[in-house]
Amino acid sequence: AVVSTQSTGSGILKLSSKQLTILFGVLIVLILGLATAIILTTTRQDNNNKRRFEFKVERGVGVVGGRTLVTNTVNGRVQGPAIRVKQGEQISVLLTNTMPDSGVSLHWHGFEMRGVQHYDGVVGLTQCAVGPGESFLYEFTVEEEPGTYWWHGHAGMKPVGHDFIKGPLIVYPRDIHLEPPTPSIDPTYSDPTTSYTIDEDITLLFQDLFPNYIGYDHPLTMGGMQIEPARDVEGFHSGAMAWSGGLLNGATTPEFRVTNGEYRFRVINGGGIYPYYFSIDGYSLTVVGTDGGATKPHVTDAILISPGERYDMLVTFNITEKREDVWIRAMTTTVDSEDGVMGVLRIARDRKVGWGAGVPKTTPRDLSVARILNCYYVGVYDCTSVAEMDSVVEDEVLEDTETHVADFLFQFVPQYAHLWSINQGTWKQHILPHKAMISSTFNPDTDLHPNSEVLQLPLNKTVTLVIRSVTAFPHPIHMHGHKFRVLAVSPRERQDCPDGRCDLPELDTVFGMTLEELAKKKGVRKDTVVVPAGGAVAIRFNTDNPGVWFLHCHLEQHMEDGQGFIISEGDYTQSEFPEDYPSCNSTGRFQHIETANCACYENEELDERWRMKSDMRCSRPHLCKHVL
Q1: What's the pLDDT score for residue 16?
Q2: Is 261 helix (H, G, I), strand (E, B) or coil?
Q3: Would you call 38 helix, strand, or coil by DSSP?
């Protein structure tokens, strides 16, 4: 048979039935391809180089890690969406809050947010909370260096529910073609935002299941009901709470598939309390990036990664057998324990032979003889300080310089408090304002809490900041608005802290050189650095990003309790805001507001070294003297 169709010209186009069938098949393929492209585009990228997402924050109940938990999630998933973006593209995230009793916000951890500070997400500093039933559109152009970042909430602890409002944020060079994930490599693939794997690029987001919500934390700390903390190899605290489980990419023991070749692993500690020793059984790790960007290669066996930190590493697989199964490990620093999170890595010689299905039989590395990066144990392990790494990107040291010192202490239960002293001034339990400090309507006399600790810095200077600790616990310190240079990390020996509290390290001797000599070092770029128990770190940055930025401990319980302060860079205010910018009317905002301001209660029943003094300033009602 011959089918004739009228053309727009003077002739007749004649097609056989066979040709017509082929034509229809081609059209169907094109239509399906177009539909697939539309699906991918609506969740990933539109025609204006904009990556669009919709994040709905929900309260729910689910089985997580074998336990039934109340959960706070994005789009109903314990595994938060992955955002992948190229330099120069826009991120557009519509945040909608459906929780009934709490405000929310989003922070883009590691992004410097130059010129768009109102999207930095710090409730009480750069915005007020997005209240129940409300939405806010975060939309800005990404100018960050390629690397591994992450997004998470920054509105304080929620009344109830474990926090799963977090996910990877990966920045790629502007000149690459960004492909969607590959289903055959990632067995959990369902759509581009839920997969953390793209071919040879694997993101691993670890988190503990620390119950980081007010209903659990506040009675625990106020009443001094915490159990004896876990201990690390030197006897310092390895975790403020008992280990309660953890997840890797939203699962307890997920599987990952690779074939022979080189892979990039992007490792994020998105937890709230515990640091992890990260390793892959039987394989060395070539570190090529930190949370401050690309570094010169450094080969190690394991990396100690604290909450907020990220490391990029290359791992080469070259097996001769058909397949091999090994453990991916992220183990806590608690001595003589098996606490941690694990994943299964299935290696195939090639795709034709396929992957295994059994339980790996590999054993963990002996840390006593392993090379460990970012380790701070003096004379115990083969540790390499992160300060010894070299970043690829250079920076400029300005002629105009200044040095500041920030000290912090932890008050033991039953009082429980974290306090800061800036440049050896009054010890204060820091508290963020109740309104956005960047607003032109912000009045420091009425809107700034008396215990809000602010370090005022002029523009166009190179600043060296020394951070010292008197606590017997390592603290990961994160700085908003900057990638800084880590000049030195100085740990303490356990014998220097005999009763669980250390004396402040001496400025003149703690780093083995003068501060003037130290300021000239190159240092590695980071945005999160660990202050060892009783130790000190020195960081350097240029004041070239006007704004008000938060510096704080990234252990959520500690930040909630006052371990942070504000860096006010230049005389910065902002007069124009998006139309949907959250209101700072506290009525119905459901954001955590503290109003106490008192001399800390000095409990004379405690040893003098362990108790707060009455010349310290507290911001929590239970730390004030109550007269019965």
Answers
A1: 56
A2: strand
A3: helix
- Structure-token pair, residue 228: 């004896």
From the list 398, 394, 556, the residue with the least C-alpha distance to 483 is: 394
Cα separation of 259 and 243, whole Å? 34
Q: What is the mean pLDDT of residues 309-331?
A: 97
**Which of 551, 539, 541 lies closest to 487 in space, CA to CA?**
539
Any residues with CB less than 8 A from the CB of 310 and at least 6 apart, and which? 110, 147, 148, 149, 150, 266, 267, 268, 269, 289, 290, 291
Q: How far apart are CA 495 and CA 235, in angstroms?
A: 10
Tokens of 296: 């010169």
pLDDT of residue 592: 60
Q: Which amino acid would we find at residue 108? A: W
Q: What are the CA-CA distances from residue 50 to residues 91, 134, 159, 256, 321 (Å)? A: 6, 23, 34, 30, 45
Left, alpha or beta for 618 (phi > 0: left; psi -120 to 50: alpha)? beta
Give the three-state DSSP class for 43: helix
pLDDT tens digits, 581-621: 998 875 445 666 667 889 988 878 777 777 888 899 998 88
More confident residue, 461 or 124: 461
Q: Which residue, 566, 423, 592, is CA-closest to 125?
A: 566
C-alpha span between 115 and 616 (Å, rounded) = 36
Answer yes or no: are the C-beta atoms of 529 and 503 closer than 8 Å. Answer: no
Q: Is residue 206 within 8 Å of residue 248, measured between CB atoms?
A: yes
Neighbour count for residue 542 (Cβ, 10 Å): 20
∠ CA 174-179-184, rounded to 5°? 155
Q: Number of H helices and number of E strands within the chain? A: 5, 40
Locus of tokens 């504000």: 566
Q: Give the model's pLDDT for residue 31.
A: 41
SS3 (DSSP) at 480: coil
Sign, CA dihedral 582-587-589-592, equals positive
Q: Which of 153, 159, 163, 160 is nearest to 130 (CA)?
A: 153
Cβ atoms < 10 Å from Cβ of 228: 7
Render the burial of 331-341: b for 16+ CB within 10 Å, e for the rest: bbbbeeeebbb
Alpha-carbon distances, residue 367 vs 148, 264, 330, 450, 469 (angstroms): 26, 23, 13, 47, 26
Calpha distance 362→502 (Å, rounded): 40
pLDDT at 555 > cutoff 60: yes
Work out the mean pLDDT of the chain and round it to a whole number: 84
Q: 3-class SS at 325?
A: strand
- What confidence tens digit (pLDDT) does each residue in 332-383 have? 988 777 889 999 999 999 999 999 999 999 999 999 899 999 998 877 889 9
Question: CA angle at residue 565 from 561 to 571, to 5 degrees?
Answer: 150
Handedness of CA 158, 159, 163, 164 (dihedral sign): negative
CA distance 225 to 221: 7
pLDDT by residue (tens digit) across 38-57?
333 334 455 568 899 999 99
Phi, psi values for residue 220, rounded to 5°: -65, -50
Identify the pLDDT of residue 11.
36
